[in-house]
Fold this protein.
Amino acid sequence: MKRRTILKGAGAVLVLAAGGGVWRASDRGVFSTGRGPAYEPWSTWRGDPSEGPLVYVRAAILAANPHNTQPWLFRLSASRLDLFADPRRSLGPLDPFRRELYLGLGCALENLHLAAQVDGFLANVAYLPDAASLEHAAAIGLTRAPAAPTGSRSPAATLHAAIPRRHTNRAPYDMARPVSQAALQALGGLNDDPELMLFWFAEEGKRRRLAEVMVRATEAMRRDDEVMRASAQWERFRWREMQAFADGLTVDALGLSAKERALAKWLPTPDPARVRDLWQRATRERQTATASVFGVLAGLGGELTPRGASGGGGVRATEAARWLRCGRLWQRLHLWGTTQDLAMQPMNQAIERAEREAVLGVEPTIGKALEELIGEPRWKPLMIFRLGYPTLPALPTPRRSVHRVLA
Ligand SMILES: Cc1cc2nc3c(=O)[nH]c(=O)nc-3n(C[C@H](O)[C@H](O)[C@H](O)COP(=O)(O)O)c2cc1C
């Protein structure tokens, strides 16, 4: 074969390979971060005033929620909104008491409440209004509020404006830029619920001890096939699947740099064992290692052991209501953090593992360690998070449209 012919052939192979690579990259969303129908709710969230209370649901669905399961359903009427749990979207063995599910509903409730308030309504929330059903999480009555003084922006309006900018940040945080005491105090000041408490782990020794417990909990969870399978059901590492389901955990939300993200999307989807390894490494080397501060939201009373697990009533309404209120507080903290350019990430594996220990009836190693760290047995941990200044921006996650979440 002549040299020119060989070169032509090689060129064609290269063009094909490059073309195939580009096709594969675009098919996997390498060039489409934050785009497509699954991301539209982030840009259409202000809706149209003629839609009435549906506009508040647009704000609600942008809330934080466990594994991006979006476990909510909404029912609307002119003067009232009802929020329901969608049990088909529970995390199963990863959330055996549905603590996280109710926390997520609380987050949605907070956004909804802010949207109604900013629109001039008094939103009166009744938690668990139906004694016969724990799935009816809240009823929100809407009445017109007296006209607010014009001029300065209300705190609710500031938090409301942050709704589409709030994203969970799993990237490394900037350890050279400490979080000020004033910021921690301001965050603490957002809690007005006597049954909830915010504990800070800011001093290095305390942070390290909590980080160790979190890493140990991750290691135990990683070996727990039932839990890992439940978690994997919400992985949406394939672009088309993610666009169709519009929920779950995505590559874009992992806190990777632009290059790492492109590569992770382009390469074949990792097998379950590799996903577990990556999670373990991210927890140890990236997330706990760069937490400027940890916070623990705790609730008074409550227990980690299953209530009536042997056939009784399961979780009680008082407990679920506390979780809803805690979810509202978490959303408020994260929105306020967003207004201050702080990065935040819930990291709940230690609580999840403690619950799992209770369900399995095994030695409560992580449960005890957590209790000792908090040091006040009356307060039970409900949510753990890290806080700091970002080194990378956090990206939006998919959302199902409002029309898919109406009961
Ligand atoms: C109750 C609850 C528990 C969560 N636990 C974790 C966690 O353990 N690790 C984590 O990385 N993110 C956790 N998250 C964050 C969610 O995964 C995140 O809110 C969801 O994927 C939607 O993404 P967004 O917050 O960026 O909108 C949790 C959120 C909530 C409300």
